[in-house]
Amino acid sequence: MRYQAVILDIDGVLAALPHEQAWREALARLMMGEWLPIQPEIHYNPQAFTRERYLALVDGQSPERVAQALLDVFHIPDPDGSRATLYRVQKDAMLEELVQRGEFTVYPDTLRFLLRMKDQGLKLAAASSLPHAGAVLGGVDVSAFVEGGGLMGEALGIALPAGVSLLDMLDADVGGSPASAGAADMAAAAARLLGIPPERCLVLASPAGAAAARAAGMGAVALDRGGGSPQALASLDDLPIDTLLGDARTA
Asked: How far apart (Å, rounded) are the C-alpha atoms in residues 95 and 22?
């Protein structure tokens, strides 16, 4: 078999997380609280925080740059950068709060792919810098997904107890790793926990994460849900399983 394990990132790969909502609500909280004294001079209007404006600012930008760009849009002065830092911290806290409430959307194609791989005997691991990775993984009810027709008529050879989550199905989890570790380092750590050589691991990640995994000697599939990258897939349903596993199951 060509691969013996699948290692996945979470944000944008397994699930769509409510980043936009977190940025919006974090700013609203700050303007109603700590930053209320500056409200008269900037005339903050939460209705001006539109999806179109948000998407135009975030494309390819780091969280630090997004925070500063949003402050600039609303003319919030930040001479020493402290407000951008606070805004980013508040956004992260808000994102965790939303995730804990289950306000995220799982990509069904990823869940189908993981179940197919598990059914073929591959091990599964998560490798993510999200501090709330466990809440996402634990919030994915795999048995409900299958019972609801998520496999589109496919049958599984593995038994799924009622209420089993994706977190329950993992063989290793390095979720919540420091962001400074890097995508390839986290994937390598997951491979070590699994006891599988890197070249036998398939990493599911963003285009940048997939490139880093390949450079580290692992197989990788790049996902870009917006379809903006010609070198990435928009859905794992487009990935031929037999090619990955090897037609003779010995590659």
From this structure: 5
Question: What is the 3-state composition of the chain as percent helix, strand, coil, each rounded to the nearest 5?
Answer: 50, 10, 40
Given a contact cutoff of 8 angstroms between Cβ atoms, the answer to whether 232 and 207 are in contact is: yes
Q: What is the DSSP letter of 199?
A: G
pLDDT of residue 212: 93
Report the alpha-carbon distance of residue 102 to residue 165 in Å, rounded: 13
pTM for the predicted model, two decimal places: 0.88
Domain boundaries, the chain: 5-16+104-245, 19-100
The CATH code that applies to domain 5-16+104-245 is 3.40.50.1000
Query: Which residues, including other chains, have CB under 8 Å from residue 177's CB and lie 6 or more apart?
Result: 127, 128, 129, 186, 189
d(CA 105, CA 91): 19
CA 227 to chain centre: 16
Total count of residues recorded for the chain = 251
Q: For 8-33, what is the mean pLDDT?
A: 96
What is the C-alpha to C-alpha distance for residues 249 and 2, in angstroms, rounded to an integer? 7
